[in-house]
User: Fold these one by one.
Assistant:
Number 1:
Amino acid sequence: MPLHIIVGAQWGDEGKGRITDLLSADAVAVARFSGGDNAGHTVTVDAPGGPQIFKLHLLPSGLVHPHVVGVLGHGMVVNPSRLLAEMDRLRASGASVTPERVKLSAAAHLITPAHVALDQADEAARSAPSAGGKIGTTGRGIGPAYTDKTARRGLRAELMLDPARLGDRVLEHVRAANLTLERIYARPPLDAAAVAAEYTSYARALAPYLAETSLYLHGQLRAGAAVLAEGAQGTLLDLNTGTYPFVTSSSPTSGGAFVGLGLGPQFAGRIIGVTKVFQTRVGEGPFPTEAFGPEAERLRGTGANPWDEFGTTTGRPRRCGWLDLVLLRYAIRVNGITELVLTKLDVLAGLEQVRLCTGYEAGDQRYEELPWGPADLAPFRPIYESMPGWAEDSSGARTLADLPAQARCYVRRIEALTGVPVSLISVGPERSQIVPAR
Ligand code: IMP
């Protein structure tokens, strides 16, 4: 009765969607446990007319498999308009999207246009030099929705069981948000009655999907089925363990999976940490191994391919740099990662040398672990180990033996420096482009 947990070991965008898709083949249910439509999971499925690309923001990516039940857990914040649109898109691709297949936790929280407006107003206000700088949020209302949740005035999905009551609560919520928008941010107010009417109609559409998802998942696990917890974002964006304040407002780490699904840790199975073989980040905040100029462009790609390093949700170019093992060891520790999945090994082909950050230095001190956690990385300079690169294109590799010898050495070196085995390596965006690491 295992609950396998997939977490991002970096700042999100590690390629978790691909791995979730692969492991979903053996799972009965795949559950998102944190975040909202700030996430963007790309899954490429081989189809008769050429590869079919799914970009999912709220629905678990495992739903691409017809046998999987997708769960949106307690810990999520859900924008109903975006959820309905995403359901329609998935349906249009031929998938069945019914209450039997999609279960929305009654305890998840709803995002409204007022949360989105507050997020955008707050970001704009932070850009002022005296205000501490922008977070670089996705502008999807995530922070304000979690703020309302922790302030105990949030709109839980269960309100959709009573559309009239939801309408009243939304009216009251938008009116309160309007005071902040107008008086603090000097922004125009929203039409509270129109938003309330909109949410009443969403309630009618989504009420059939509401479920006691903890009970459902518990039942499946007790019956011996495998459930996959699909992480969004990454360890370094976690509200507790991330590079605060440049973080999201939820807990995308393995601990967040238990809280966000309403399950106890006795079910834990594999804890799978997904990391690219290099480092990327969108939004603001420290990034010790960040590369610039041609080196960064080489890792980022041009944007011609959907899997190049441009945000799935916002289209922003991602900041790119070398793999940081200080941060990876930290992610392994705080999540209890039992195995690593390496993604995008193919991108490194053609580089004369590949680099790994094995430690940091500050003044005359060397560090292999972060002395104070990752919040203030600014004082540290990375210490690199260089290894010979490889020229051969590895995107066609399907077994370890197909990989160039130097690429295999690079993978083994990551294992040696982290003490955690690598189970899978991705060498391209398609389902088949996966290499077992043993
Ligand atoms: P928010 O989650 O929209 O509040 O954004 C907070 C920070 O998390 C920003 O730096 C975002 O760029 C980052 N972020 C949020 N979701 C993702 C994601 O799915 N991938 C990468 N970065 C993300």
Number 2:
Amino acid sequence: MRILSGIQPSGRPHIGNYFGMMKPAIALQDEGEAFYFIADYHALTSTHDPAVLRANVRELAIDFLACGLDPAKATFWRQSDVPEVTELSWILSCVTPMGMLERCVSYKDKIAQGISPSHGLFAYPLLQAADILIFDSNVVPVGKDQKQHLELTRDVAQKFNDRYGEDLLVIPTPQIREATATVPGLDGQKMSKSYDNTIDIFEETEKKLRKKIMKIVTDSTPVEDPKDPTDSYIVQLYSLFASEEEVKAMEDSFRAGGEGYGHYKQTLFEAIRDHFAPMRERREELVNDTSYVDGVLEEGAKRAREKAREVTDRVRSAVGM
Ligand code: ADP
Ligand code: TRP
């Protein structure tokens, strides 16, 4: 079983990325042949500074490895090191009705966020389909926001097979993580780089991490009064890091009153700091050993490219090339 997923290098990864994508991907590397990549072709739709793109790719590679991606188990590469995906994307575009792409909401959402409406942004889901189909992927674990792109991938693969021959492309099964609650940001909206409300996995210093956590939005209930834990972002974030008992203790304390929100933020700060401490140590090692990191991506690209070549050759021959 081949498991495939990708993540865009669009800035320092945050806790939402960690729980939404990186941690589940790392957990799945024991379940099958894991194929994970850094989607830098996709990032080109929104990152236009070459130095920034290069730095973001390296940063994400280091962070993913530090968090537990194991290159002995998973193939890990940079998307642009397998340029065959762009060729497959073109071939697929010729079986894809315009309406199918026009219906994709991500394009409209991204324009609303201020990303310039390029053809690349419009064709983004088709490149994603190529990413998936070029490795005969069976299972694609993604967050809810990617559901439509996976449906498109399946539809495009089916259209291709209908036109050129059954079984040419493997129809992938999405594994949508409905359960992963959306991780809230400092302001309570979905944590996202575009909302400037993130807590990064690796904040530069403890002081910065603490300062951010102190900014989490709360209501203005006085210190001594009981507080409602049910819609507190502090509790929601804490529950990602703490045991059931620990969360319950915080909830009980909320209801009892007598502590200010600053106290709970301090507890949350310590939980986050401690959770990522071993990964932060590993990260320090990787930062100082970039040739190892580059080597992992190179080796991954070599393996990924072999498989991509095989599927591309199959497709080229099927369409008459
Ligand atoms: P951002 O919104 O910060 O730009 P992306 O859209 O690049 O993040 O998301 C990358 C991955 O992280 C996706 O798989 C997405 O589902 C996941 N993800 C991002 N933000 C969150 C969040 N707040 N909660 C859960 N998962 C998230
Ligand atoms: N579009 C995905 C995101 O923004 C990233 C991605 C690109 C991807 N290609 C993929 C995810 C292939 C899964 C499979 O999160």
